[in-house]
Amino acid sequence: MPTLTFSPKDRYNAFITTLNEAGTGPGKLSGIGIAVKDNISTSGIPTTCASRILEGYIPPFDAHVVTLLKKAGAGIVGKTNMDEFGMGTTTENSAFGPTKNPADPSRVPGGSSGGSAAAIAAGMVRMALGTDTGGSIRCPAAFCGIVGHKPTYGRVSRYGLIAYANSLEQIGPMARTVSDISLLMEILTAYDPRDSTSINCPYAHTPDPDVHGLKIGVPEEYFGEGVDPRVASVVWEGISLLERKGAEIITCRMPSMAYALAAYYVTCTSEASSNLARFDGVRYGHPADTKLQWHESFQDRRRNGFGTEVKRRIMLGTFALSSGYYGKYYAKAQAARQQVRTDFLRLFRSVDVIAGPTMPTVAFRLGEKTDPLSMYLSDILTVPANLAGIPAISVPCGTSEGLPVGLQIMGPHFRDERVIDVAYAYELGVAR
Amino acid sequence: MTETAGTTGQENRVMDFSDDEVIIGLEIHCQLDTLTKLFCGCSTDYRDDGPNTHVCPICLGLPGSLPRVNRKAIEYALRVAKALNCTIIEESEFARKNYFYPDLNKGFQITQYDRPLAVRGYLDIEGDDGEKRVRITRVHVEEDPGRLVHKGGADRAKYTLVDYNRAGIPLIEIVTEPDIRSPKEARKFLNKLRATLEYLGVFDSEKEGSLRVDANISIQPKGWFTREGKGKADRGRAEVKNISSYKGVEKALTFEVTRQKNALRRGQRLGTETRHFVETRGITTSSRSKEMEQDYRYFPEPDLRPLQVCSWAEEIVLPELPDARRARFLTQYGCSPIHARTLTGDLRVAEFYEHIATIDPVLAATWVADTLLGELNYRDMGVSRVSPESFRELIVLVKEGSVTDKGGVEVLRSLLDQIKESGSCETPGECVGRLGLRVLERTGETGADDDPVAKAAREVIAEQPQAVADFHAGKKEAFNFLVGQVMKKTRGRAKPADVNQVLSGILGKEG
Asked: What is the C-alpha R_g of chain B?
């Protein structure tokens, strides 16, 4: 088996683990080195979720997507940095230190898949895998000036993805070009019965840039309060380019956006509080202290193993699920989530795709977002797609203050092909 | 922990307890006898293997693993739901029950909560006052957690080991309405339920730890539980957790009835409490650990889709169940109602009986239901240890008169002892020969010198002059005594009819 050598200078702290040599084989991705976010299990390679609590854990199995990449001939060259367990929008919440944005090293790369985005933006790898629970692929793609796609929920198997919020998250491709995103989608969508929430819907598609007659919905809320006017104007220009290519722009409304962020944070913290309960030091990772009573040892392990943001979210989720509060929070969040879904389904009866900015601002300065709430607010434009389970891509559409801005395109369930086509049309239009 | 805990105050008012009623509801967990676990492909046949040998990333709860429902387990649960006359829920779902414990691989148990597989059924049992219906509240599916092993005993162990072989074994939880009125009735319900589950082919009661019961028990004024009685004060209740045997349930509940009655008689008000059954001492103790009071934060399992299995249930054809088999035994074999009930109360016994019923159904019924089961029970053995062919041979010997009933019992005891000791036994014919139990054949006319029965009779008459005198004085019992003595002398080998004939012949002549 031919091997690939990989010995990059990791100036932006994009990687947690790098492999100097990676085996490759024949196939559609033959000889291509791919970086994998460190919450995706890789057999024999430490998988940390950027958390101390998984220190020393080496998965005995590959995630389904990793198996697929290997089968397609790719070499896994490293595991990328991220916000601990995917909880963050900046890749600053990592036990291995923050990743820096190659476009401006004083800025964050976005998160939580910031390491994957930075590795691509810095030219260290051609493509990478990220995961997107509330924007974690699209946000860093936008901030670093690359392409990132969150597939339809259920299109890519989550087997081997260390869960943060199961009902929201998807593994997805990140790359410099839309064509590479499309190529990765062909590989990643091979069906896996081990994930009961996945659906057998392979992606076999070559991007088509023709947008003649395509109806693009633009929700007012995507250009409303909190969205930097300079970012808004860059994105509007991008949308206008598509109009010039023959698409029809239809402004619309998405009233459920008012509840989206709250519904998202209640749902993801609730699921996380349960998912992260297994990290108790009994079976893997740093071993529990057997001198203590079991509950003391668990407390000890979890107190020292998890970072601040993770503990905050576990506590929020534990509260939201508690008896007496479930109806007030979790159940309401699910109702709001249903409204978001209904809003999208309604819009998709009259438009083919929906477009808007990926992030309300450009990349923050490192250390700028100290207040968790203001960081949560920056997810407002990405979380609706996760709540509804629809595909959404972020494609670079120019700069504001010299920093990359992302154009987000969302489509109906299982129409990843259409979303990728529109992004491709934009990419080609800019290139010309 | 204290045995009389759970009393929360004093009642000064004198209460009348003459019209009390025991109210019991059960929550039963049974392991479904599938080949593989509920959410992974690991084998469920772990009992004879070393710890943590039947595990994989899924049942160890390794990060990134995902559960996948074993279709067979759902089918088994549906069979149970159908046999218990339940309504299958159109769309049921799995939920997570969140709590921390070292044997819990994921920090939560996948179970069902507000949308269980099936609801509202019933099971008819032979209750304290005849046939009665116990209503079933719900039936749901869940995974078994792992097991803790305290080396050197729970109290003295310096550390505890965890074995995840059991983690992920499919369980069904069956919850009854509080329709049971005595510990004995609870036992009868469990026996009927066990028989039903075994007839369905979904449960093996002989596997260690395959059944666990939580029992809710209270003593209330009669009619308290009916609509009219709702206004009366609730006297409190106890939930006895984790009873792991059929006998244990009756024992624990009997202890609770006494404990609660005594407390009420002393004027104490019983609160609602969780208690623990100490099998070795036959008592329950209050368990006030915080664990029991915790909030499980149930929410729908996001890694699994809702179950829509009504159509599966429709396709299931139930096998013959205990009640139907009992009715058939009455008509087909002419069994007595009591024998029919006993024989059909356990699938293995019913099948064992049907194996040998052809020789002489009524004789076989008596031998299986009355003799064999008693002897097995005495030796704490299951019927599966006995070969039906061997037992059939014994019945044939009894039927053709080669061995008397009494001799037959002696042979059976010897054979069972051999099985218990070495796992196998000689043939009944060999056993009869070895023990010299072959029936004494009469070799001549009554009183002939070489007739062994007559010889024994003459000896007894010579040894028992008093009894002979009593007989001649008209005491009928004396004759029976003499018959008994002859039987004893022949070690049960003489046919009672022969003994009667010979004795009355000799005594008549003398008279």
From this structure: 29
Question: Which of B66, B68, B109 should be substituted to probe chain A, the one whose Cβ sees the most A Cβ atoms within 10 Å?
Answer: B66
Residues of chain B with CATH 1.10.10.410: 452-510
Q: How far apart are CA A3 and CA A280, in angstroms?
A: 38
A311 is catalytic: no
- Which listed CATH number (3.30.450.20, 3.50.50.60, 1.10.10.410, 2.60.40.1930) goes with B452-510? 1.10.10.410
Say which DSSP state B303 is in: T
Contact between A218 and A239 (Cβ < 8 Å): yes
Residue B70: C-alpha distances to residues B65, B77, B103, B120, B245 (Å): 15, 11, 22, 24, 27
State both tokens at B283: 């008592």
Q: What is the ipTM of this complex?
A: 0.96
Report the predicted TM-score, pTM, of the whole model to 2 decimal places: 0.90
Residues in contact with B59: Cβ distance below 8 Å, sequence separation at least 6, in sequence order? B37, B39, B40, B42, B105, B164, B167, B168
SS (H, E, C) B329-378: HHHHHCCCHHHHHHHHCCHHHHHHHHHHCCCCHHHHHHHHHHHHHHHHHH
For A3-259+332-431, CATH number out of 3.20.130.10, 3.40.50.410, 3.30.2130.10, 3.90.1300.10 equals: 3.90.1300.10
Tokens of B10: 């004093």
Could you tell me if A377 and A261 are in contact, meaning their C-beta atoms sit under 8 angstroms apart? yes
Pairwise CB contact (< 8 Å): B63 & A197:
no
Beta strand B283-286 pairing with B272-278: antiparallel
Distance to chain A for B101, nearest Cα, Å? 8
**What is the 3 state secondary structure string of A231-260?**
HHHHHHHHHHHHHHCCCEEEEECCCCHHHH
Please tell me the distance from the alpha carbon of residue B60 to that of residue B69, in angstroms, as a whole number: 16
Tell me phi and psi for residue B38, to 5 degrees. -70, -35
DSSP codes, B97-136: EE---TT-TTSEEEE--SS-SEEEEEEEEEETTEEEEEEE
Mean pLDDT by groups of 10 residues along chain A of 432 residues: 87 97 94 97 97 94 98 97 98 98 98 97 98 98 98 98 98 98 98 98 97 97 94 97 97 96 97 97 79 88 94 97 93 97 98 98 94 92 98 97 97 98 94 64
A270 is catalytic: no
Q: For chain B, how many residues are written?
A: 511
In tens, the pLDDT along B50-63 reads 999 999 999 999 99
CA B137 to chain centre: 22
B102 touches chain A (CB under 8 A): yes
Task: Give the span between the Cα atoms of A24 and A29, in whole angstroms.
Answer: 9
